[in-house]
Design goal:
Layout: H1 2-18, H2 24-30, H3 38-41, E1 53-60, E2 64-70, E3 86-90, E4 99-101, E5 115-119, E6 123-129, E7 147-156, E8 164-168, H4 172-182, E9 189-203, E10 206-219, H5 222-241, H6 251-273, H7 283-333, H8 348-372, H9 377-404, H10 407-439
Parallel strand pairs: 1-8
Antiparallel strand pairs: 1-2, 2-6, 3-5, 4-7, 5-6, 7-10, 9-10
The structure holds 2-acetamido-2-deoxy-beta-D-glucopyranose (2 copies).
Length: about 450
């Protein structure tokens, strides 16, 4: 380590002896920058005051403001100073353009770049790292699939266009490309484009030149799709599926209420993620409201159907049990008969089903009875058993009939079917429409 340092020293002393040396200070001395720098920063650096100062600037994402202008009165011959073409001097030694950003809402507290570069022809380069917290009008109409454009307008505070011209250093495509290279973050926003335009503001018969940088960025929607859109869609599917729950005791109703509650919780989440500034209804709100309304309708429909069926079963309960026994007795009387079944008419549907069944069953049974009637008590018991089975079957049928048959139940079934068709049609029309609206 020591030897190495020694060697370096030898070489450098060797260099001093053989060549003319110049230091940066020599350049500053020559420029009179070491004595009194006030002359260099007091006024706009032009020899003829009618000449405008041309300030060229670039903004890259991360808000690096790269400035370039010419300081007339500073120049040296690099050949005189061993080829020194650039020196870095503290930034407050020279005049600097008084640029400000219109949209900036917070004072920039990022660390200052201490030096600026001056080259031999008087061009001054300055780079300022800024953290710009700016206002930006957002349009959340297409919320998770939205693209936002934000402006950063740069202008001079006091110098009008005859005194200071503001020119973009690089055009839109180069700025975009450069920002893409600089930008490596994977935030919620995907940077799309950076474009530059300029216009003049007229005020008090004076014109101020204004450079506007427009950032275009697109929201990455995946998180919101997974977090919100899909769950809502899943609940809609569940609600749709609940039409196929065979309901006897209000389970369907409970299920639908649960799904509706789950959707309400998701709506609370939406309240958090949706920016509230918008004068147009966001599509996501339409999406939620329509789905919520569909679920509400289907819940109401279920309530109606349940009510209708309840009404029907209450009406049947009144005629139910007595009737059962009565028709049983009738059947016992006419064991060998074939037409008795037509008498059990209290339930519309039982008539067809059970009549057909019984005609098949009763005939062989009657023959059996005739052949075995003499063989004693066991035969009688068997007969009773058969009859009990028969009775049970009839009661079962009648129970299921009570749920399906009847005038109100018939209406309930019709309403159910019509609503299911309406529901499916509305949903299958609405979903494609809103997704098309989202993507155009
Ligand atoms: C620096 O100041 C001296 C004395 O005032 C003047 O003669 C010289 O021209 C100045 N140098 C430059 C580069 O203006
Ligand atoms: C602004 O004014 C300057 C000077 O008059 C002119 O050269 C420039 O083209 C103007 N810019 C625009 C965008 O009109």
């Amino acid at each position: 380590m020591m030897r190495f340092a020694f060697l370096l020293l030898v070489i450098s002393t060797d260099g001093v002896t053989s060549k003319k040396v110049c230091s940066y200070l020599d350049v500053l001395d020559y420029l009179n920058l070491t004595k009194d720098t006030s002359a260099f920063k007091l006024t706009r650096p032009v020899l003829d005051y009618t000449d405008p100062t041309r300030v060229e600037l670039d903004i890259f994402l991360y808000a690096i403001l790269a400035l370039k202008w010419k300081h007339e009165g500073i120049s040296w011959d690099p050949a005189e100073f061993c080829g020194i073409t650039q020196i870095a001097i503290p930034r407050d030694m020279l005049w600097r353009p008084d640029l400000f950003i219109f949209e900036m809402t917070q004072k920039d507290d990022s660390p200052l770049n201490l030096y600026i570069l001056v080259s031999s022809d008087g061009t001054v380069y300055s780079e300022e790292d800024m953290k710009v917290v700016s206002t930006c009008k957002m349009d959340v109409h297409k919320f998770p699939f939205d693209t936002q454009r934000c402006n950063i307008s740069v202008a001079s505070a006091i110098h009008h266009v005859d005194e200071m011209r503001l020119l973009p250093c690089s055009n839109s495509s180069r700025a975009t490309q450069f920002s893409r290279e600089v930008l490596k973050t994977q935030g919620e926003w995907e940077f799309m484009q950076l474009s530059v335009s300029s216009f003049n503001i007229t005020y008090n018969n004076r014109q101020w030149e204004n450079l506007v940088y427009t950032f275009t960025m697109r929201r990455r929607p995946l998180l919101h799709v997974i977090n919100f859109l899909l769950p809502v869609l899943f609940f809609l599917c569940l609600d749709l599926a609940s039409f196929f729950i065979a309901d006897h005791r209000g389970e369907k109703l409970g299920f639908k209420v649960t799904v509706l509650l789950a959707i309400s919780v998701l709506l609370l989440i939406l309240n958090d993620i949706l920016p509230s500034m918008s004068n147009k209804t966001p599509l996501i709100a339409t999406y939620c409201i329509v789905i919520f309304a569909m679920m509400l309708l289907s819940l109401l429909e279920t309530i109606l159907v349940t009510h209708l069926m309840e009404k029907d079963s209450v009406a049947q309960e009144k005629v139910g049990p007595a009737d059962d026994w009565q028709h049983k007795k009738e059947k016992m009387k006419t064991q060998d008969g074939t037409t008795e079944d037509k008498k059990q008419t209290s339930c519309v549907c039982i008539c067809q089903v059970s009549a057909a069944e019984k005609q098949h069953e009763l005939l062989p049974m009657a023959e059996e009875d005739n052949s075995r009637i003499q063989s004693g008590d066991s035969q009688v018991l068997l007969l009773i058993l058969e009859e009990l089975k028969e009775l049970q079957k009839t009661v079962d049928l009648r129970l299921s009939c009570r749920l399906e048959g009847g005038k109100s139940s018939l209406w309930a079934a019709r309403i159910n079917k019509a609503f299911l068709i309406f529901y499916v049609t509305t949903v299958s029309l609405f979903l494609p429409l809103i997704f098309i609206a989202w993507h155009t």
